[in-house]
Amino acid sequence: MPGPEIKILLACLDQAYDHKSWHGTNLRGALRGLSSKVAAWRPAPPRHNIWEIAVHAAYWKYAVYRRLTGEPRGSFALTGSNWFARPQELTETAWRIDLKLLAATHKLLRAAIAGMKPGELYKISPGGKLNNFALISGIAAHDLYHAGQIQLLKRLAKGK
């Protein structure tokens, strides 16, 4: 059974990703119901689109999971790191596959956090600079940051 600090971190992670919270739309809510066309819309040529932001969020959930568990680098489902050019193929199926990657990565990260012992929260992973508490609270903030960014991009895309 997770300790109280871990329960709080899980609640923050869940609220930022897919649970009801006071702050408004979370990451999954921002992505809900979007078509591949809207997800692929780009506000300007060098700017990221919603699709790329969703995969970027999955990647960083994976990066935190990897740091918490010691999983080897390069084990993410896609080749590369941080930002991934999307879409490779503009179809609803391709969009849904990437949304499933985000959901699966969140579930994997959540399970790793739930299985932590309280004493591990303030441990710094080998080669890392931040302790596990900072990584976990940071990934929740990362989801919320990008949820807001997606909400703005959706509004901009409506005018096009």
How would you describe what is shown here?
The termini are far apart. Helices cover about 60% and strands about 0% of the residues. Helix 4 packs antiparallel against helix 6 (about 130-160). It has about 160 residues and is mostly helical. The protein contains six helices and no strands. It has helices at about 5-15, 25-30, 35-40, 50-70, 90-115, 130-160. The protein has a single domain (about 5-160), classed as Four Helix Bundle (Hemerythrin (Met), subunit A) (Up-down Bundle), CATH 1.20.120.
Describe, in short, the structure shown.
With 160 residues, the chain is mainly alpha-helical.
Topology of this protein?
Elements: H1 4-17, H2 27-31, H3 36-40, H4 50-69, H5 92-114, H6 132-158
Helix pairs in contact: 1-5, 1-6, 4-5, 4-6
CATH topology type: Four Helix Bundle (Hemerythrin (Met), subunit A)
Low-confidence stretches: none
Structural class estimated from helices and strands: mainly alpha
Cα separation of the termini: 50 Å
Give me the Rg, rounded. Answer: 16 Å
Largest sheet: none
Helix content: 55-70%
Key phrases:
single chain, 160 residues, mainly alpha, Four Helix Bundle (Hemerythrin (Met), subunit A), globular
